[in-house]
Design a protein that fits this description.
Order of helices and strands: HEEHEEEEEEEHHHHHEEHEE
Distance between the termini: 34 Å
Strand order of the largest sheet: 2-9-5-4-3
Largest sheet: 5 strands, mixed
Radius of gyration: 20 Å
Number of strands: 13
Shape: elongated
Helix content: 25-40%
Number of helices: 8
Structural class: alpha+beta
Length: about 270
DNA sequence: CACCATGTTCCTTG
DNA sequence: CCAAGGAACATGGT
């Protein structure tokens, strides 16, 4: 989604200036080195890999990849050069007639020239490389609770804490079940559920009215849902964040438990 | 004050 | 080697 919206706004444009306002979020950790590497680079393409956004740049020294990650609270958008910066603006890339803002309240996100995290990622869940057979072989080798396993980006890229709970509920599988204990039918159901949940999220993301230019029609993209549109939690999530509410499948009370320091939501009646 | 939060990485312990 | 648990990072909402 973010990539789809930023791509037409950034491709072909040249970075004229780099302002690092929070050193922690950039690599190399010397902000001047990042600025030197990026200045004068042209954006050739944007792509997504797992939860990472990849800026494919063309520089005088050849191609260069800039890797972004939103962490939990990151946002990226394009706005006017004169627009005021938000309190937690972490990095600003200046172009000729607009600026790219990476804002991150908690500063867990990254904007980095280090591409090594990409190499560690498992297959994209919606690509042909992610098959039920692959999933079965990887789960067979692990005694880890399946919910925790789904968060491992080396298994499959892009599943976060929300979608892990959602996929397990849709597949009717207990989050606590050791990965190796899933029967073949369960692996197949989980494989289908992961793909359905992520496809649904992408579809929703492509249709929700976005907030352009903080409500004005100035043509600049701001990544966020427009005011008055229903949020994803209210509309689509079946168990996440719904402790004590009725399961949409069977009506039993949805429970919350903590696994690997993350909340898991599940229905004790229809997930086994 | 308490607890919670869409993520990743590192460390310790067993 | 593996897994579990905790902490760190840092800010804000309830």
């Amino acid at each position: 989604m973010l990539v789809g919206h930023l791509r037409p706004l950034l491709v072909g444009k040249t970075i004229r200036g780099v302002s690092v306002r929070r050193d922690k979020v950039v690599r190399p950790s010397k902000p001047n080195n990042l600025a030197r590497a990026l200045r004068g680079a042209r954006v050739a393409e944007l792509s997504r890999r797992g939860k990472y956004i990849v800026f494919h740049l063309q520089t005088d020294n050849g191609p260069l990849k800039l890797v972004g990650h939103l962490g939990m609270t990151g946002r990226m958008w394009l706005t006017e050069l004169e627009a005021p910066l938000p309190k937690h603006a972490a990095v600003v890339l200046n172009f000729d007639s607009a600026k790219f803002v990476f804002e991150d309240t908690r500063y867990f996100g990254r904007l980095s020239l280090d591409t090594s995290p990409l190499a560690r990622l498992g297959p994209e869940p919606l690509d042909s490389g992610f098959t039920a057979a692959y999933l079965r072989s990887r789960l067979k080798a692990s005694r880890q609770a399946i919910k925790v396993k789904l968060l491992d980006q080396r298994l499959v890229a892009g599943i976060g804490n929300i979608y892990a709970s959602e996929a397990l509920h849709r597949a009717g599988i207990s989050p606590n079940l050791p990965a190796t204990r899933l029967r073949n039918e369960q692996v197949r159901a989980l494989w289908r559920a992961i793909r359905a949940v992520l496809r649904g999220a992408v579809r929703y993301g492509s249709t929700v009215p976005l907030n352009f230019g903080s409500g004005n029609s100035d043509g600049f993209f701001y990544y966020g849902r427009a005011q008055g549109t229903p949020d994803y939690y209210e509309e689509k999530l079946r168990v996440y964040g719904r402790e004590n509410q009725p399961c949409p499948k069977c009506g039993a009370r949805i429970r919350r438990r903590v696994q690997a320091a993350r909340s898991t939501f599940y229905c004790p009646n229809c997930q086994h």
